[in-house]
Amino acid sequence: MARRLKTVDNADARENRRRTRGPRHVVSAVGRLTLMAALVISTVGLVAAVAASAPVADAASAPSVPTAYVVNNGNSTVTPVAIATNALGTPIPLTTGAAPAAIAITPNGQTAYVANNANSTVTPVATATNTAGTPIALASGAGPAAIAITPNGKTAYVANAGNSTVTPITIATNTAGTPITLAAGNLFAIAITPNGQTAFVTNTNTGTVTPITIATNTAGTPITVGGGADPAGIAITPNGLTAYVASAVVGTLTPITLATGVVGTPITIPGGVNPVGVAITPNGKTAYVTDTTSNTVTPVTLATSAAGTPISLGSVTTPYAIAITPDGSTAYVTDFGSNAISVIATATNTAGAPIALATGAQPIAVAITPAVTKGYRMVGSDGGVFTFGGSPYEGSLPALGVHVTDIVREIPSPSGNGYLLIGSDGGVFAFGDAAYKGSVPALGVHVTDIVAAMSSPDGNGYLLIGSDGGVFAFGDAVYEGSLPALGVHVHDIVGAVRSSDGGGYLLVGADGGIFSFGDASYQGSLPALGVHVTDIVGVVRSAAAGSYLLVGADGGIFSFGGAGYQGSLPALGVHVNDIVAAVRSSDGGGYLLVGADGGAFAFGDALYSGSLPALGVNVHNIVNAGG
After folding, report:
1. What are phi and psi of 10, to 5 degrees?
2. Which stretch of DSSP H or E encloses residue 569?
3. Can you list the domains of the chain with their CATH numbers?
4. What is the pTM assigned to this prediction?
5. Of all helices (H) and strands (E), which one includes residue 484?
6. CA dist., res. 302 & res. 341, Å (int)
7. Which of 227, 233, 240, 328 could form a Cys-Cys staple with 194, CB 3.0–4.6 A?
8. What percent of the chain has pLDDT over 90?
């Protein structure tokens, strides 16, 4: 396999050539300078004084730890549950008699939107204060039954069972738009693809799933699930390729290939009588399906379409909705008939003691705040670590009395409460809850050219990448190939990024060349565009499935595969040549560029939380940054 130089359409080529294109939404620079006290251990900084064209709310106003929000249909409240302790917070009252039926949370975690079935409204709830705002009125008799929010956090889509419409709500203004009319029937659930392009709505009466093109708010041709199915809950895999639909009448989980609308072979749920809710783990490996009649939750291995042993929930009745924590470790299930919440450990597929709610609560929906990146770390070549904006400091090499000058990369743990520091010799240093799984020196292998590293989706493994495109796999990280194994000889690999499901990776050269392995999707390269550079320093995965951004040392940005371009330094007239890293915002709607001096530039919805020059710290050895 040679370097893949696919052509792209002219529009993409023009967009990527225009490094001086004006910014769409540049945010940041001057902000709070919050370096974690007493823990400045050496390292880096670049001027962060880019004028903001529009303010962005600080994600620090969202809950500091993941919180489950449980919608109680019976008493018109929403109950917050602290994920760390399973402690119940004070129920949040909504309008009396609202009969809330569904909930969705914005990608920045700041606001939960609750769909109220009885009075046809949607109530925003501020998660920082757990207070309900002014309800947003929908059409009379709309009877909202489900809600989902686009990955960029701009629009909520509400599926209305009362009048068979879907109403878009502009989140910036909390105003309802023109309803989208669907075929008459009982709209039950809605899900939006990770790239934000399409919403899919289930209809239990017609046995169909209807796609809605978000760019135009138009409904497409309904997809017939078939087999007498009564499609209820729906979930989409993290890579955006497949939707899984729980069919209540026939007791199945049905896959739909979203690119073609082709319905796959239904997966029978063991003992399934009335499967309703479905959620997929963040790594895309397992779906969990609730059954309101058998009072069980069934895990389904998606790679093999095999249903596992149903998980008994004990004495609780009518398990309805389900949501999974951002780290994939726990599933929360609303037990409508028992006024309780069941908690399932996904590692063992066992349910703990149910969490009791108020009598008559009738919990019907649940959503969990996302893992929002509230800050970032900068790492020096000496293993020094600087933290900003609430990113946890877990230690550094200078603090341990370890003296090195060859640290090249940082890998954050999935929880954000740890990190690995990687040396150019393939040495690995673990801090916090990051898992050490081996190193190149420990193998007796001697190299000096490690330039990039990637974690496996669950954090229990990692890949180390050499400048020649060699790949070393540790823990459960899967080796999918390397350039030396292909007989390809290069010495300019500078970065790597894994595919969204962890089943592949891209290697990136200093010239912007791209090599894809496993299921990683090649979306174009700079040589393929006829663009000649030698200063690419890294690659960042964007929100759209398969998309990526290439980052130059001058802060130039090249987008591929629909990756969201949010601005660049050349476009701002800022001239530098020492950008060393880029940090993606949690929802993929922005990025932070970091210089060798620890300067930070934020674009899109990435949050600026400080820089080393702004602190008066003078270094020139920052080599990497992470969330």
Report:
1. -60, -35
2. helix 569-572
3. 10-25+39-44+373-626 (2.120.10.30)
4. 0.61
5. helix 483-486
6. 25
7. 240
8. 73
